[in-house]
Specification:
single chain, mainly beta, 8-stranded antiparallel sheet, 4-stranded antiparallel sheet
């Protein structure tokens, strides 16, 4: 009987030790003695060599029509677009204006209108480029300044732009302009042209000179774009004339003379007109025609050196630019 109790004791002790070992192993699994978790061992995965990308020829992207995109965004606005292409077809000047037409748009944008002007060119080294010239919101008032295109230089290197002053009422003959600028087409660089208090601005056929008039000083002027100098001649106005305006500036084919019309009194109801000629070399202004009975005097063209075509009322005539004599066409 003692032997049986001894064997049972040994068996119980063995079971107790086995249970203790199992409990101890379970409690310490995955933990170091310091209490720091054991990082799981990861077997490295073999990575195949990176494939060299194949060079794909770029597909030409269609030219972005920024004016069309702006027109879609500006809903509730009246959109007007203008475009002028260079003679060689390499560049174009584009203008977009947007005026609110709904009450919602008026309130949303505070009664303001939008103007956006770009110059797009295709350059041999750079491809297609776009220069932003004007991007602005302005308050609507009794008058406003509208970006306008003046002309391209004969050598294809420059474009000339300006702002036309649009009054609230009758537009005077020749209008008024400001901010005349020269845009370098290769770089987009803008250079201001120092012409102030001007109207009737016109680029000469050789694109080297700009004609204009100064209402406040009563003068006609020519600005030389190459030399950067300005010259002026006095415009004599009939005594007793309170208001007058000049316009229809028309250059001679050789860019040495300019014809223009002076209109008297109110812009809405002029009382008469005069045809004048300005000589660049002598800096003199001469009077060719004076019509106090007919304010509707306009210059049609000056395509011949010694005479130009004018319209008086409903009739057209040739006028001798040296004497002012009228000749039937």
């Amino acid at each position: 009987k003692s032997l049986i109790f001894l064997l049972m004791g040994v068996l119980a002790m063995s079971l107790l030790l086995a249970a203790c070992r199992q409990s101890t192993a379970t409690a310490t699994q995955g933990v170091l003695l310091s209490g720091t978790p054991i990082a799981e061992t990861v077997t490295p995965t073999r990575i195949s060599p990176t494939t060299t990308p194949t060079r794909v020829k770029a597909t030409p992207t269609p030219t972005r029509d920024v004016l069309a995109e702006a027109g879609e965004v500006l809903s509730g606005f009246s959109i007007e677009k203008s475009r002028m292409d260079s003679p060689d077809g390499r560049c174009n000047w584009q203008r977009l204006t947007a005026n609110p037409t709904t009450e919602e748009a008026m309130q949303k944008y505070g009664g303001m209108w939008f103007k956006y002007v770009t110059m797009q060119c295709y350059l041999e080294e750079q491809g297609e480029v776009e220069w932003g010239l004007v991007k602005a919101w302005e308050e609507m008032g009794l008058g406003y300044a509208l970006p306008a295109f003046l002309g391209w230089s004969a050598d294809g290197k420059f474009a000339y732009v300006e702002e036309a002053i649009i009054p609230d009422g009758c537009q005077p003959l020749g209008g008024f302009q400001r901010n005349v600028q020269e845009v370098e087409l290769e770089t987009g660089k803008v250079r201001p042209i120092p012409i102030e208090a001007s109207g009737g601005i016109t680029l000469s056929p050789d694109t080297l000179k700009i004609a204009f008039y100064d209402l406040q000083r009563g003068e006609v002027g020519v600005y030389d774009l190459t030399a950067g100098v300005e010259q002026r001649g006095r415009i004599e106005i009939p005594a007793g004339t309170e208001y007058w305006y000049a316009g229809d500036f028309t250059w001679s084919p050789d860019s040495l003379s300019v014809l223009f019309v002076v209109q008297y009194e109110d812009a809405c109801f002029p009382t008469g007109a005069s045809l004048r000629r300005y000589e660049v070399q002598t800096n003199e202004v001469s009077r060719l025609l004076e019509r106090s009975d007919e304010p509707a005097l306009r210059i049609v063209e000056w395509s011949e050196g010694n005479r130009a075509r004018v319209r008086i009322g409903e009739e057209e005539w040739w006028v001798e630019v040296e004497t002012g004599e009228l000749v039937e066409p």
